[in-house]
Amino acid sequence: MSNINHTLIADFPVFESFSTQELNLVLNNAKSLRYPIGEIIFEQSAPAHSYFFLLHGHIRVTKITPEGKQIGVRYINPGEFFGITEAIGIDRYPATATAAIDSIILCWPSSNWHPLMKDVPKLADKMLKILGRKLQQTHTRIIELTTQSSEQRIANVLLDLSQNSGRQVGENTEITFPISRQDIAEMTGNTLHTVSRILSNWESRSIVKSGRKRISITNLEALKALAQKNT
Amino acid sequence: MSNINHTLIADFPVFESFSTQELNLVLNNAKSLRYPIGEIIFEQSAPAHSYFFLLHGHIRVTKITPEGKQIGVRYINPGEFFGITEAIGIDRYPATATAAIDSIILCWPSSNWHPLMKDVPKLADKMLKILGRKLQQTHTRIIELTTQSSEQRIANVLLDLSQNSGRQVGENTEITFPISRQDIAEMTGNTLHTVSRILSNWESRSIVKSGRKRISITNLEALKALAQKNT
DNA sequence: CGGTAGGTTGATCGCCTTCAAATCGTGTGG
DNA sequence: CCACACGATTTGAAGGCGATCAACCTACCG
């Protein structure tokens, strides 16, 4: 029996309709860990020893090219599994995961994956759906990269982040973890210079308000309009 | 019992280590169909009624953006499943599939998916791996799009196509189905003009030889060098 | 309070798109 | 069998978007 209480995870959508017994099966063999901001959880190409679930915080996932250029893959929100290499039959992490902010995660040894999927088939189903959605999102990303302008891509990333990792503060929606121009550049395929120029421009038009590693959206409608194709 | 003989599929890598009995389970409920060049197999956003396996030929998969711009996703080779929407829990096709050349496919009703996965768990495992590899390939594509020049991206696509869909003809490797500049442009995020210019340039350097909807690589090493990061 | 990581802003350059027009290949109907 | 039509390709010219190079500024941290 696990030393982690099932109520810790019961409310996340992935586990909806799971019985207490099933939750306990899931938590069996799980360890909880705290990662302070900036700490690396796993590194690209390293042998995959564990898989993870984010309880609290935010994780930044990045990939590095053979030429050494870094690109941002995505941000993990609480309630998401990550590093599930066993699911797709690989034995090394395909990317690097870093705590974007102090975070608490659950982790299981990789060897636990197949037994768990067998014991809780419901979870295996979920995993497939998760993979499927990821694949779709990745395709959307490609479409954006090939058909949209820098400005549109940045607008889209910001909308996505505000939707999935945003917090309402008065009139504004602010992104709940520190994110730099460089980070946005790596996610949108731009240089930080371009990102800075565009954000400055938006700031002058009162669409966003941003500071050092902080971004807050003041005019969501305007941003949505920018993300849409127009001139 | 199916009217399709199991030897038709036995030699494809996906089915390696499958028993005759398992193969017959797979073929149960399968229909084989012939699609002439240019014919649409399924269309993006249409309700997913079937899933498919390519026996012979080549299938082009494309996506269309909300703004109406078309992009090329990939080419299916014989031995691959496609349109497996059930696997990722969606009920509409996420892209359009067209016969790039006269093709022969197997097709099953979507409703057959879950029973089959249950009857042949070995196949479910394979499907996960396939999805995983697809996800990885898609990420590679993103990396290429964000970090490489037009020339490098085109070189990479050509290398990929020659590897997976190439035929050795004397000194040259030619791509075994008709593919236009426009097609390559849609796969690499370029205009057909850029593709044409680059191919013309390569032709003058004796790296490729190409005609109307036909491409043949005459100097593989040179192409590999171009795909690599250089100046 | 100094050092440093993050951010801004200007100037220039080049790749690729866009616009335009000509040419080539292929299949088809008279 | 030839002429024609249309799709595919080539090539030129111009222009722009975003990268690159460069310098400076500013907020936070120890």
The beta-strand count of chain A equals 10
**Oligomer status:** homodimer
Spatial shape of chain A: globular
Query: Which whole number gives the mean pLDDT of chain A?
Result: 94
Computed over alpha carbons, the radius of gyration of chain A is: 19 Å
Task: Report the β-strand fraction of chain A as a percent range.
Answer: 25-35%
Q: Do you know the CATH topology of the largest domain in chain A? A: Jelly Rolls
Which two chains form the greatest contact, residue counts included?
A-B, 30 and 30 residues
Continuous helix count of chain A: 7
**Low-confidence runs of chain A (pLDDT<50, min 5 residues)?**
none
Biggest sheet descriptor of chain A: 6 strands, antiparallel
Keywords (chains A, B): DNA-binding, Transcription, Transcription regulation
InterPro entries (chains A, B): cNMP-bd_dom, cNMP-bd_dom_sf, Env_Response_Regulators, HTH_CRP, RmlC-like_jellyroll, WH-like_DNA-bd_sf, WH_DNA-bd_sf
Protein name (chains A, B): Crp/Fnr family transcriptional regulator
Domain Cyclic nucleotide-binding (chains A, B): 14-99
Topology of this protein?
The structure is a homodimer of 231-residue chains.
Chain A: H1 20-27, E1 31-35, E2 40-42, E3 50-64, E4 70-76, E5 81-82, E6 96-109, H2 113-119, H3 121-147, H4 150-165, E7 166-169, E8 172-175, H5 181-188, H6 192-204, E9 208-211, E10 214-217, H7 220-227
Antiparallel strand pairs in A: 1-6, 2-6, 3-4, 3-5, 3-6, 7-8, 8-10, 9-10
Chain A binds a DNA duplex (30 and 30 nucleotides) through residues 149-150, 180-182, 190-194, 196-197, 199-200, 211-213.
